[in-house]
Amino acid sequence: MLSEVIPLDQAVRTRGEPHAPLADAHQQMLYRLGVERDERLRLREERDRCTTSKAALQATLAKTSELKAAVDSQMESVTAAAASLQGPMAHVIQSDGDFHPHASLLPSPLYALGLSAVSYFKASGSEATLNISGDVAAAQALAQLTSKEGTSQDASQPTPDDALEAHPLAVEIRLASSVVSFRYYPQLQLLAAGATSATADAVLHSLGSHLSTSNLSSQPEECDDGRRLPDLCTRLRWHRVTGGRDVDMAALSPHRPYKWLQWLGGLGPLLTTAPQPSQLVLGVLMSKLAAL
To answer: How far apart are the first and last CA of the chain?
Structure first.
C-alpha cells in the first residue's frame, strides 16, 4: 500500500534549512519538486527585475544620447560662431593680451562674463565701461595656490563657511551713474549680481521676467527674482558644503544668484531652443540701464 501523500506546502522546505530525513522516495520526490518550484519562482522574479532595470537603463541611455546630440550640435554652432568672430574681435584681446590688466586672475565664469561684456560694448558702440575690483593680492595668492594644488585629491576640504566666500575679484559694469557688480562663489559654482542703486537693482530683478516671456527661462512658471538658488545642482552643492544647512539667500546680499546670470558665465542649464540667453541678456540689460 502506498504511503499517504503529504501536502506540497509541507514537502517544500527552504534550502539549507535543517529537516528530518524523508521517509520514502515519494516524499523525496515531492521535496525536490518543491525546491525546483521555489528556484523557478526566484529566477522568474529576478528576470522580471532585470527586465525592468534594462528598460529603465535603455530609456536613460536614449535621453542621454539625445542630450549629447544637442550638446554636439550646440558645440558646432559655438565653434563656427567663434571662428567667424576671431578676426573682427581680435582687437579686443590683442595688445596687452587681456581685456583688463587683472583679467587673468578671474575665475572662468567671471572671465567669460567680462569678455562677453567687452565684446558687446565694442560691437554695439555702447558707452558702458568694465572694471575689475577687489583684492588683487588675494586673487594672486589664490591663483598661485590653485596652480600648485591643481586637481590633487590632497587639497584641503571646504568648510561650511567656504560656501559663502566669494572670489576676491568682482566684475563691474558701469553705465552713466549705474554700477552693476558680478561675484563668483567657487564652492557653489554660482554667479551673483548686485547694483549700487535701487533703480539699477530693480532692473536686475525685472530682467528674469523679461527673459521668461521670451521663452528663455528653463522654468518660466518660477519668478527669477534671485531669492532662490538657480538649479538643483547648486542646491546639492550648498547642502554638501554646508553640511545640510538651510539655504539663506540673505548671506549673499546685496548680490542675488539670478538664473539668467548663470548663462552669461557658462553655468546655466542646457537649452535646446534658440535664441540662447547669452545672445540677448547683455543687450536687454544695457538697454534697461541706459533708460534709467
So the answer is: 108
For the chain, the domains span 1-86, 96-149+158-290
CA-CA distance, 238 to 164, in Å (whole number)? 9
3-state secondary structure of 135: coil
Q: How many CB atoms lie within 10 A of CB 285?
A: 25
Q: Is 190 helix (H, G, I), strand (E, B) or coil?
A: strand
Place of cell 558702458: 128
List the 129-134 sheet strands across, edge first: 129-134, 169-175, 178-185, 190-195
pLDDT of residue 49: 94
Give the whole-angstrom CA distance, residue 115 versus residue 23. 88
Angle CA 162–166–171, to nearest 5:
165
pLDDT one-digit tens code per residue, 56-78: 999 999 999 999 998 898 888 88
Quote the CA–CA distance of 172 and 165 in Å, as a whole number. Answer: 18
From CA 184, how far away is CA 132, in angstroms rounded? 13
Q: What are phi and psi of 3, to 5 degrees?
A: -70, 160
Confidence of residue 202 (pLDDT cuts 50, 70, 90): confident
Q: Are the C-beta atoms of 183 and 192 separated by less than 8 Å?
A: yes
pTM of the model: 0.62
